[in-house]
Specification:
With 138 residues, the chain is an alpha+beta fold. It is 22% helix and 48% strand. The relative contact order is 0.15.
């Protein structure tokens, strides 16, 4: 069994970095610990993967990650021979979805980095991003 597990680990360790999208279903972040653990689930299948990352990476997430957050993570697959488990060592986490987009717009509004207004003509919402302008229907 040990030989098979080592061969699997060798093959997985040769893989490059990957990006994976999913839904956070569990966050285990202990005070003072350098490493945190998360579970990432595929929302359209019964598949999940354990993620490990630095606790600092989790602390800098804005807005903070919660169970149910949709994310894209970047990391390297690792296989632990002793336990026979696959996990992903993550170095980047990015929230995705409409909730994240609205949270970003709200933060920019609060910081005064964008201006917003509603046009009297047909309820068009104008959001200015520096020299850019996004136009949507209200």
């Amino acid at each position: 069994m040990r030989t098979v597990a080592r061969k699997i680990a060798d093959w997985i360790h040769r893989l490059g970095d990957i990006w994976v999208e999913g839904q956070v279903t569990q966050i285990n972040q202990r005070p003072g610990a350098a490493t945190s653990f998360l579970t990432l689930r595929d929302p359209s299948a019964e598949v999940s993967l354990t993620l490990t990352c630095s606790s600092g990476l989790l602390r800098k997430q804005d807005p903070p990650l919660t169970d149910g957050s949709r994310v894209v993570v970047h990391g390297k697959p690792t296989f632990f021979v002793g336990r026979g488990t696959l996990s992903l060592r993550v170095d980047d986490i990015r929230a995705v979805g409409i909730g994240e987009l609205l949270a970003r717009i709200e933060r920019l509004l609060q910081r005064g980095r964008i201006r917003s207004g509603i046009s009297a003509v047909s309820g068009t919402v104008l959001v200015g991003l520096g020299a850019s302008l996004a136009v949507t229907r209200a």
